[in-house]
Amino acid sequence: MTAPAVTRSALAWSAFLTHRPRLFRPGHIRERAELNREYDRHRGSARERGYTSAWDKAAKAHLQRHPLCVYCQLVDRLTPATCVDHLYPQRQFAETFWRSEWWCSSCKECHDGFKQTIERKGRAALDALAQRLGLPLLG
Ligand SMILES: [Zn+2]
Fold first, then answer.
1. DSSP letters along 33-87, please?
2. Spacing, Cα 71 to ligand 1 middle (Å)
3. In the predicted model, is pLDDT for residue 2 greater than 60?
4. What is the pLDDT of residues 75-111, one digit of tens each?
């Protein structure tokens, strides 16, 4: 028994099906990694913004004590939290970085979606959220 003949056209067809053209990126559009580096230069790296190993340790301990996303709990969803959010975003309210009364266990979806929306709405929306969560307001 012989192996089926692989024809020249079958090979060409297979190459056609598996070939992926290189992504076209105009010269003025920069890569995501480059944009992130530039953003970090502007705002400071995570370490420079206070996310030190001490923060990692404190955040981990907070997540162990408060394992569910507090924002999901507002709508009766029980979701494991994966990060600790600063209710008052530390880029505007740096003085609250270590104030654990405003640390909120959060899932990534809430942190990247719902909470960003609240932050864009400004201080009054942050205060309203603090109230809904039963947290003190920033004086
Ligand atoms: Zn959530």
1. HHHHHHHHHHH--TTTTT--HHHHHHHHHHHHHS-B-HHHHHTT---B--EEEES
2. 5
3. no
4. 999 999 999 999 999 889 999 999 999 999 999 999 9
Q: How far apart are CA 125 and CA 121, in angstroms?
A: 6
Q: Give distance in angstroms: CA of 51 to centre of ligand 1.
A: 21
pLDDT tens digits along 47-79: 777 788 999 999 999 999 999 999 999 999 999
CA–centroid distance, 129 to ligand 1, in Å, is 14
| Residue 139 near residue 100 (C-beta atoms within 8 A) | no
Q: Give the domain ranges of the chain.
A: 53-139
Q: What single DSSP character describes residue 6?
A: -
pLDDT digits (tens, 9 = 90+) for 107-117: 999 999 999 99
